[in-house]
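Inputs:
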Amino acid sequence: MVDIVTAAMVIIGDEILSGRTKDRNIGHLADIMTAIGIDLKEVRIVPDEEDEIVAAVNALRARYTYVFTTGGIGPTHDDITADSISKAFGVPCEYDAKAYAMMEANYASRGMEFTEARKRMARMPLGAEHIDNPVSMAPGFHIGNVYVMAGVPAIFQAMLDNVVPTLKTGTKLLSVSVECPFGEGTIGGPLAEIQKRHPDTIIGSYPKYLDGSFWTELVVRARSPEALEAARAEVAAMVAGIVEASAKPD
Amino acid sequence: MVDIVTAAMVIIGDEILSGRTKDRNIGHLADIMTAIGIDLKEVRIVPDEEDEIVAAVNALRARYTYVFTTGGIGPTHDDITADSISKAFGVPCEYDAKAYAMMEANYASRGMEFTEARKRMARMPLGAEHIDNPVSMAPGFHIGNVYVMAGVPAIFQAMLDNVVPTLKTGTKLLSVSVECPFGEGTIGGPLAEIQKRHPDTIIGSYPKYLDGSFWTELVVRARSPEALEAARAEVAAMVAGIVEASAKPD
C-alpha cells in the first residue's frame, strides 16, 4: 500500500532575501526528506516579520503532514520565531522551565552571565517540546506538526538529525536518471508518449547547459520499483534509438 | 522621498524539492534586487503542478510590485509554466507569432527539425511580451507584473539581465556590517537598545559558527545614508566597548 507523507519548509530570513547569506538548508532538507520517504511539497522564504511568519506557518501546517522552520531562534531582538509560532498556535510564549534550568546551569558552569538576551532562547510556545541542540545548547522545539530549528546550517543539521527518527515516513519516491546527450527539443515528443504510457511514474526532463552545449538529464520517479524500471527501460531505449539514428550515414 | 518597490520569486521545480538539483537562482536574484533597489520580500518553491503554480503566482502578483518565476518553460511535457501563467491571468495560451517565426527560422538555418516539442516553447499567454534569451533562443515572457524565465542558471541570469533595465526601482536599502567577535548572547541586550533608538534602521544579528566557536555579523540596513551611519557607529562602539572590557584584568 502506498502511504504519502508530506512536508513544507519555512525559512525565516531577511538575510536570505537580501542576498547577504546564501541558503544552504533547502538542499539538505530536500535530500533528507527524499531519503526517508517524505515528499517536500513547498518551501517559502519569508522576512523577519511576525504577520508573514504566522501566515506562512498556518497556511502550510494545515496542508502538509509536517512543517519545518529554520531561523530566528537566537537571543537577539530580531529573533521573533518563538513569538510568531506561539501566535500561529494561539498560545502564550513563555520561558520553558526545563530549557531555562538547563541553560542557567550551563552558563553558570562556564562562568558566563545568563543575560536577558540568552534567556530569550528559553522561550517557546506553551506546550512545545524540545529539539535537542548538541552544537550550542539552546534547544529548538516542536508544537503540533511544526518543527522549529536554527538557521545556522551546522545547528539545523544537528537538530534535524534528532527530529528525523521521530517522524512518520511514507512510501519512498524512488528515482533513477538517464543521461541524454541531446537537448530537450529532440526528445520532448517521444518522452511525453512514454509519460502517457506510464501514468504511475513522474518523468522529468532537466536541461543542463555546459560550455555552450546542452544535454538533458531524464529522471523517472515512482513509488513502485517495477513501475520505475518499466518506464526507465523505455526512456533508455528511446535515447539509445536516437543516438543510433543520428550516427547513421544519410 | 522614500520609494519602496517589492518583488517575489516563484521557483517551479520538482527537482529542487526532491534535492536532485540545488538551487542557484535565489541568491542571484536576491543580490541583483538588493543592488538595484527592489526589496525581495518572499520566495516560494512549488512543485510542477498547475494548481500550485496558479495559486502562488496569483497570491504574490497581487501583493508585490513584481513576480519573477524560474523553471518549466522548456519543450517537454513537464514544462507547464506557460499554461499555468495563462490560467492565472485567465487568458488563452497560444503560439506567439513572433516567437514561432523566429524559432522556425533559427532551426531551419541549423538544419534541425522544428519538432512539436520545440514548438511548445513558442507558446505563451495571449498578450505576453518576450524576454530575449541570448543563450538558447527560446524566449521567456512577461505579462502584467509577472516575469517568466528559465530555470537553468546561465539562461535565467541572461534573461534577468534583459529584464533589469526595464524595471522601476526604489530607494535602495543600504547595508553595512560590523563584525563582532562575541556570540549573540553577549551583545543581544545592548543591540536591542540600539535598535530602539534607531527605528528608521533594521538591525540584524547573524550568528556564524566556525570550527567550534561563534562570532556574529551585525548588519545595519537603512534607506538613508545618515541613518545608516548613525546606527553603525553605535553598534561599532558597543562592540568595541565589550572587547575593551573583556580585555581588562579583573
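The longest helix of chain B spans residues 225-247. Flag for discussion at group meeting.
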